Sequence to fold (812 residues):
Amino acid sequence: MLSPYRVLDLTDEGALICGQILGDLGADVIVVEPPGGAAARRAGPRWHDDPGPDRSLNWWSFNRNKRGITLDLESAGGQARLRELVRTSDFLVESFAPGYLDGLGLGYVALSAINPRLVMVSITPFGQTGPKAHWAASDLTVYASSGALNMSGDDDRPPVAIPVPQAFLHAGAEAAAGALIAHFGRERDGLGQHVDVSAQTAAMMATQGTVLSEAWGSPPTNRMAGGVNFGGIPLKFVNPAKDGYVSVTILFGSSIGPFTRRLMEVMCDEGFVDEATRDKDWLNYTTMIVSGQEPLSELVRCLEAIGRFTASHTKAELFRMGLEKSLLIVPIATTEDIVLSPQLASRDYFTQVEHPEIGESVTYPGPFAKFSGNPIAYRRRPPLLGEHNAEVESDRRAARPGPSATSSPRDLPLAGLKIADFMWVAAGPWGTRYLADYGATVVRVENAARIDAIRTVGPYRDGKPGTETSAGYSTINAGKLGLSLNLAHPKGQEVAFRLAIWADVVTDSFSPGAMKRLGLDYDSLRAAKPDIISISSCLNGQTGPHAKLAGFGTMGLHIAGFGEIVGWPDRPPAGAAGAYTDYVAPKFTAAAILAALDHRRRTSEGQRIDFSQAEAAMHFIGPAILDYTVNGRVQGRRGNASPEHAPHGVFPVAGKDRWVAIAVTNEAQWQSLCAATHRTDWLTQPRFATLEARLANREAIEGELAFWTASRTVDEAEQILQAAGVPIHRVSTSVDALADLQLVARGHFLTVPHPEFGSVVIEDSRMRFSATPAQVTRPGPVFGQDSDTVLRDLLGLSDDEIVELVAEGVLD
Fold:
């Protein structure tokens, strides 16, 4: 779909996924490495533990569909060659420290003078500007800064991260969406711009709005192994089975409460709960707990009963029961389970890629989405170091025509784009929020008879549950128009169809078959509007034996393999916190939509996109999956330990449940750490003298470092080690995030008017555009807030038609 475009990829480590997404979508991506190779080539795991530069499974995971060259950007020749490549490129993506390229004469201002059409995307820990822009950072410390780390792990141990580093994967996938948003505007007005991506705010999506708890007057969200503690309400999702572990999602409200009720019916039939427990008001249970009508001890008793019930069955029995009885139960999958999944096999997910240099075909995670007209193909295996130097040197691609000079203000990149949004909960709506932030008109369709689950999840305004009091709902759906429509009514379906035909893109996250029953499936829409683009996003995709599994990100994270690998080796899986795949999938969703739109602009062809949240999210643990397909190793839990770095972990500081993340990633940082902590004796101890020795004696060095941090406040620890250039950051809470001078300087938290509460705080876009910054002026709409505007102004209904719809209960 993006075959006309060239991308120069100057990123490293997790940020490399940006170029891979663009390459998967068809772009010609040239990854530019220093002569010694990118750092990602030195990271494990490795093909048969071979130390060679082309054997890193970490490198393989994020570099398919790319060509590779080497350039010494600090030499005059390397700089000149890059400038030549920029003349004929559409995108440049980089992850150097802020100001580094400017110092070489290769910053955005200089490069845009060469090619005004260039979209340049910069990925950094905290963004290009602000008081922390030049802080020493690692993936672990950035993840700590986002607030996501604080939610994950056992409450009697340090917060625990996902062992495949995630912060720069969030930023890289965010950058792919940002690049395509800027490109959409560039193809209209002829000018590129600079997109500034902060890994801190990109990863902050993984808090699901709980970062707003303090601003909304809600109790904090606390970590809890195998679940989450929302404002003092413990919700445990990981439970034992006879032969391992399963995830059971137990939540409440009109959309999820019925699942909980069915679970209790099954448990009652098997004698694990009594009839009184079965018959509790599971729809309004959150309100009952918060009000004190139901004691918290009752919820705890029910959670314990669930654990006894699951322990009496095997994982397969429980999963089969979930499919047959529509329960929210899935096994906690290992990487082996993923590769052997019958669901993924039925969708031909895993893809064979030939590696001639090793004489093998390697099994990779497959396409992140299925496109009806332009399927993703793995055209190239990851490049060897400098493999395409000569090929790219001889490729004298013609520069694309530049724009005419203009001084007119530029519209938002997506202005004029129309989206009929039937998404719900988090993964889908967050994907369409990207579009709303940058000018698209997004009409969110709701049904008051089936309240969106995200409206029933905290944090709540002043800690009070209600359909309009959810901070997560307000930030996830910011900037959208709200249409409250009864889709069960035939005339409601007629209005929905009219809305779909008005739109450029129709999005949904219903179970497979639901849109067809409503007459809104792709074939029906295409018959009326041949160039329509339709994307259906659900847990497992639209086909396969598990397609109809009703599910949420709390289950998707375990299907995709994030549950089993997070936690401590001596304890059950802690799982990534919350509904983790709901925070990964939206970035891929937005990129898929934008690529399909660009293809339509050039060809007038529409497209259907079958999007599985689990399949897309698996790319965030690609190295662990390849470690199984290549080496037969099943990754287990290892706490915060890194196989490449030590010390690397989360350490206590003064105060209740206060922590800092510290990661020493090179020898210079190790020497600085020893000097800053006045422990230069560590440098002379044989057990700590080399990286190999520190890795072997990890517990000893990290125990001594914990002793140092424990006697200091979080501010003191940060100030001392940052001054020495050692990556450190507090494990941020909601209170920390709202006071974070970096987030304040970049205006991440916005106060916007709310029709019921006067004003509320929501999150801004997670990127900064140099020419057309996002405009976020309102939170998610209250029920039916814009129904009249949508029906009258967008769809052209008359007053009489609207009155008739109200009278017949269509506008609920």
